[in-house]
Specification:
Blueprint (H helix, E strand, L loop, with lengths): L1 H28 L3 E4 L3 E4 L8 E5 L4 E7 L3 E6 L2 E6 L3 E2 L23 E7 L7 H10 L5 E4 L1 H6 L1 H9 L3 E4 L12 H19 L15 H6 L3 E3 L3 E2 L2 H4 L2 H9 L8 E5 L3 H16 L3 E2 L2 H7 L8 E3 L4
Parallel strand pairs: 8-9, 8-13, 8-14, 9-10, 11-15, 12-13
Antiparallel strand pairs: 1-4, 1-7, 2-3, 4-5, 5-6
Helix pairs in contact: 2-9, 8-9
Length: 310
């Protein structure tokens, strides 16, 4: 009984200290300058269903009125409204820099193009099969490889680049970055850079965060363009060739779109074997992310998430 009371008292003290610290932080930051870290809607009420009364872009200045973990009440220009707290920061934002697109292939900008992307590899039981299919049809894709797996199977990543594919980073250990802090994110990127240079002799230019996560800590501390997707095949869930193909077929027009798959499943390799000739027959050019950006006139910049190339 005494132990239970002691634990309860410790819990209450911890809650009180946290609350006092939170109130102190909030009081110190009221009416101070904050910055939008991404394109974000200013809403009339703290809900995603509320009326949009403004749009903020990266670096836009605002004044903090009130703050909670989910929504902050802010003043932007002459309007007062709500934005998700994950997308504002009291830290001055780093300048964005454009990442040069290196592409030697000549493509027909008048013809439709689609980018196949593969996460979580390389894996010896499936990634080489995907590469064989790409090579068979003289096509390319973008692989977002996990650094720890790249260090295990460097020859597979080297083959990806050797046949003309683009290789980006999926961090070093595929951790959930949204529940980590700045130092952990920086370490993940540094480890990825080290193994990437060791494997390919140069650095990567694109990142896909694990699970596609983004918040202000991620955006501010990853000094690369970050690539999302338009079509999620959910191949990790269904592990079924026909289900993967059906997800893509249901999407309709694929021009300018990014398809998410994973190079770590044999069923995905099965789907790719059928998907690529089907796409070519429909007149699509299969391109890398950088090529898609180039031919769709999208400028790739650091500290920025991209999902639309249309």
């Amino acid at each position: 009984m005494k132990k239970g009371i002691f634990i309860y008292i410790v819990f209450l003290v911890t809650v009180c200290i946290s609350f006092i610290s939170y109130k102190s932080w909030q009081n110190e930051n009221i009416n101070k300058t904050f910055y939008a870290v991404d394109t974000v809607y200013l809403r009339e009420e703290p809900t995603v269903y509320s009326k949009i009364i403004g749009v903020l872009s990266y670096g836009d200045k605002l004044k903090l009125e009130t703050y909670t973990d989910e929504w902050s009440n802010v003043k932007y220009n002459d309007k007062i409204g709500y934005v998700p707290s994950d997308f504002i920061s009291n830290r001055k934002l780093p300048d964005k820099m454009e990442v040069p697109v290196v592409s030697t292939r000549k493509l027909d900008s008048s013809k439709p193009m689609v980018a196949l992307t593969f996460d979580d590899g390389p894996k010896p039981e499936s990634t080489p099969r995907i590469l064989e299919t790409l090579e068979k049809y003289n096509c390319v894709a973008t692989f977002f490889d996990v650094g720890s797996r790249m260090s295990q199977y460097p020859e597979i990543t080297q083959r990806e680049e050797a046949i003309g594919c683009e290789v980006g980073s999926h961090t070093y250990s595929h951790s959930q970055l949204s529940i980590t802090g700045k130092n952990y994110i920086l370490k993940e990127i540094q480890l990825s850079e080290d193994i990437y240079r060791k494997t390919l002799g140069h650095n990567f230019t694109l990142v896909r965060t694990p699970y596609g996560e983004k918040n202000n800590t991620i955006i501010l501390n990853i000094n690369y363009p970050m690539i999302y997707w338009d079509i999620d095949t959910r191949d990790w869930e269904n592990k079924n060739k026909d289900a993967i193909l059906e997800k893509i077929n249901q999407a309709g027009n694929l021009n300018g779109k990014i398809i998410l798959m994973h190079s770590s499943y044999p069923t995905t390799a099965d789907a790719v074997d059928e998907l690529i000739p089907n796409l070519l027959e429909q007149g699509y050019q299969l391109v890398t992310i950088s090529e898609l950006a180039k031919y769709k006139n999208v400028k790739l910049e650091t500290h920025t998430f991209y999902s639309i190339f249309q």
